[in-house]
Amino acid sequence: MAEAVADRLRRAEHEFGTGDLNGLDVARLGEGEPEWLARRRLHAWKVYETTPMPTERMEEWRYTDLAQRLSIDQLDVPSIVTLRDDPDTWPQSLKRAMGDDPETSGHLVLLGGSVVYTDIQPSLASQGVVLTSLRKAVEEHPELLKEHLATQAVPPEEGKLQALNAALWTDGIFLYVPRGVRLENPVRVTRWVSRADAAYFTRTLIIAEDTSQVSYVDEVLSEDLDSHALTSTSVEVIARDSAQVQYVAVQQLGRGVFYQSAQRTLADRDSTLDTLNVSLGATTTRVDLNARLLGPGASSNMLGLYFGDGDQHFDHNTSQDHLAPATHSDLLYKGALDGTSRSVFRGIIRVAEKAQQTDAYQTNRNLLLSGDARADSLPKLEIEADDVKCSHGASVGELDEEAIFYLMSRGLSRNQAERLVVLGFLGEVLQRLPLGGVGEKVTRAIEGKLRTGAHA
Amino acid sequence: MSDDAILTIEALKADVAAEELGILKALDLQVCKGEVHAIMGPNGSGKSTLAKVLMGHPGYRPTSGRALFDGSDLLAMEPHDRARAGMFLAFQYPVEVPGVSIANFLRTSMQSRLKEGDDLDLFDFQDLLLDRMKLLEMEPSFAERSVNDGFSGGEKKRNEILQMAVLKPKLVLMDETDSGLDIDALKVVASGVNTLRQEDPDMAIVLITHYQRILDYITPDVVHVMVDGRIVRSGGPEVALWLEEEGYASWREAEEQAAAI
Q: Is residue A1 part of a domain?
């Protein structure tokens, strides 16, 4: 795919001289896009081409052999599809996932790489809240997008895959919450991926203005695919002064899928910007999360949960960047690994010299359920300020046999006992971010996995 | 063997699984329905090993002899089958299970005892749990705490008795439940146990203890003295009182003399 698009882009550049994306090639990526965006795509493509493919020789990719796990040039970017707003035609599992959702402020559905459905409570829309597809936002909110799309948060210069995403994104989510508006219920996004041999590039841009409040829950699902596919997403979350934002991503893709998510959160003065990444599905998961605490008093709780079986591979790469005084971050990532599954957690806390009176914590705990599973945990601190409270901890452990015996002595079978211990272990993460229906949904998904796995 | 026997142990020998230390040395014991037996003995005499072997702890290995529970071959059963058959071990050191609430744990325990396809009535369960907590003077919020996680010693022991009160076993092995309890907590625990005995007069108790103190509140029918993996003397409550005065030293001496011969 990449080569084919590259050819087209090169041809476009050659034919039109200026690098304007025009004619058939442009239509392929998005009909009638404004020039600024076309230029941005082309720039991103150049960055992609000049950035070397990550290899295991790079520290950040040491445990994930990208070339072996992802054959980018064998994938194809499916055409942008505009489907009817007709839920009858949607896949059952997608409807089930949506049906489980409690009260929402708005809902957005993506099929493949395109938004097919959006709704938002009229009372919120009238207060200026925007929940729409990124393609529409390009037309309707060009100033905001020009300023924020792939600029401060996840620009193409972040890396090879980030550049590819910035060049080839087909659609995505734009959520804007004006100053002082507080959303009582979460905004929910449900994504469905159905095609193998395809690469889906989407982006999310969330802007929460001063003193606003919003929770956002993004769920991505698919069936198991018989060959491989890429789901790539770049997520940009901006919390202005004293805003409160919760970003939740729940990944339940089927086997065969490579899930790649590059996320950056920008927290201004006295804002709270919390994240939760739940990784349950896909064959390969790579999440890069960078939390930037930009304003004094900003705070980020960063939660993560993963549960692998079979030959699943999870790579979570996090950084906590304290760039202003009196900022706070607290990271807790927990994972359980069964079968021959494997996880890598790499986390760094960076405290800039001026970020005095900062608290930064980082904990990664892993539970191995099988002798063939493996977890690597690589915590790191880089502290330039002297008046800070920082700690990091990492552990890889096995099931506590005394706990299993204790539970069995009350009548639970070994499998029931293991399930309770695993759910209890992972549940700590969900308890820290109580958000309508998310905990229950994730718990059910974990239970489902425990049932189908060797620990049934 | 009595028809009323709930537990019959004959010439039971056991090792720590990895070693051949012979911790239990041909132990015999018979407990009948409704009886309270106290097993007393010094540290290292094998009292707690007996409790763990009877419950099926994987760290211990019975090497010979047999144990019948309610007519079934206990040693052939998995720990959870022993529990479902009506055995209960109140642990000396209850284990912490982070993230699992007591209510969820007990609900799963109750559910696991039902036939495949039968569902526990959650309202009945809730009523039972609240009633049992009241009996043991516990706050209802206690059931929402993670099992033993961050509990004080006394809370852990009370949690054991709560589980016993909910699960209503036929035979209870209490492994040094009294250790770590202050006198007030001990009275609450003992009164809970006595109430359960009144509710089910057939419930039998094997009370493993180092001290006579708990026997002031839960009166034993039979007291056994265990030294070096064997029961060396059995009798009425007077044995416990006698031990209290003489201490275990005299038994050790007797043992050593016997060994020297």
A: no
In CATH, what number is assigned to the domain containing residue B214?
3.40.50.300
For B126-159, give the DSSP string: HHHHHHHHHHTT--GGGGGSEETTT--HHHHHHH
Say yes or no: B17 contacts chain A, CB-CB below 8 A.
no
Specify if A111 maps to a domain: yes
Instruction: Match 């359980």 to its residue by tokens.
Output: A336
Query: For chains A and B, what is the number of CB pairs under 8 angstroms?
Result: 80
Residues with Cβ < 8 Å from A405, sequence gap 6 or more?
A: B57, B58, B79, B95
Domain holding B56, by residue range, is 5-98+170-260
Please give the residue that has the higher pLDDT: either B20 or A66: A66
To the nearest whole number, what is the mean pLDDT of chain A? 88
What order do you get walking across the sheet with A114-120 strand by strand?
A114-120, A106-111, A187-193, A213-222, A244-252, A272-279, A299-308, A328-337, A358-368, A388-398
What's the structural domain count of chain B? 1
Which residues of chain B are within 8 Å of residue A400 when distances are taken between CB atoms?
95
| Cβ distance of A408 and B163 shorter than 8 Å | no
A319-329 average pLDDT score: 98
Q: Is the pLDDT of residue A84 over 90?
A: no
- The ipTM (two decimal places) reads 0.94
pLDDT in tens, A434-454: 787 788 888 888 888 887 654
A421–chain B nearest CA distance, Å: 7
Nearest to A408 among B80, B88, B94 (CB): B80
Is A264 among the domain residues? yes
pTM of the model: 0.86
Count the Cβ atoms, other than its own, within 10 Å of residue A339.
Answer: 17
Residue A196, pLDDT score:
81
Decide if A412 and B91 are in contact by the 8 Å CB cutoff.
no
Residues in chain B closer than 8 A to A412 (CB atoms): 80, 108-109, 112
The answer to the question of residue A212 being in a domain is yes
* pLDDT the model gives residue B238: 87
Does B99 sit within 8 Å of A431, measured CB to CB? yes
Q: Is residue B233 within 8 angstroms of chain A, CB to CB?
A: no
- Divide the 261 residues of chain B into consecutive groups of 10 and give the mean pLDDT of each group: 82 83 87 96 89 95 93 95 96 94 95 89 94 92 94 91 96 92 89 93 95 91 92 89 77 64 59
Q: Give the residue numbers spanning the domain of A308.
A: 83-404
Residue B91, token pair as written in the block: 């642990």
Stretch 375-414 of chain A: residues touching chain B, C-beta under 8 Å: 400-403, 405-414
Question: Which residue in chain B has the smallest CA separation from A432?
Answer: B99
Is pLDDT larger for residue A240 or for residue B2?
Answer: A240
Q: What are phi and psi of B76, to 5 degrees?
A: -90, -5
Cα A161-A214-A352 angle, rounded to 5 deg: 55
A414, B113: Cβ pair inside 8 Å? no
Question: Residue A239 above 50 pLDDT?
Answer: yes
- Cross-strand bridge partners of residue A366: A335, A396
Pairing verdict, β B97-101 and B146-147? antiparallel
Select from B54, B84, B95 the residue whose CB has the most chain A CBs within 10 Å, as the one to mutate to test that interface.
B95
From chain B residues 145-174, the ones with a CB under 8 A of any chain A CB are: 146, 163, 167
**Cα atoms in the Cβ-side hemisphere of radius 13 Å centred on B162:** 28
A227–chain B nearest CA distance, Å: 38
What residue has token string 């009372």?
A: A123
Task: Name the percent of chain A lying above pLDDT 90.
Answer: 66
